[in-house]
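Task card 7
Instruction: Convert sequence to structure tokens.
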Amino acid sequence: MSATTVSAHTSTEIAERIDAIAKSERRNRSQIVAMALELFVELPPQARAAWLKISTTGSDRELKTLIDKISRTIVDLQYETAREQAIAQIQLEHLEPLATEDDILAAAVRITKSK
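Output:
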């Protein structure tokens, strides 16, 4: 994918928060901003309009609620995706007859053993 530079003006507080995120994630400012832009441009127009309204006229509590809901949705989807991938990789033949705790332990070792 080719890249191009996009400039934006933001508050010093936001720039400092971007820099803190970049430092903690060992990425650069540009990568953090690009990730945020990717999310924003994928939103449908109605969602962008709602975001603008809430961010400019909503209360701090409403904005925090919105961020919490977005965050929870992202984390929930990531969990579901990982869970589905793990389930797809489980080989059911390893789970046949598991009558004792030793059987369960042996199956767990076989499943998690590096190939």
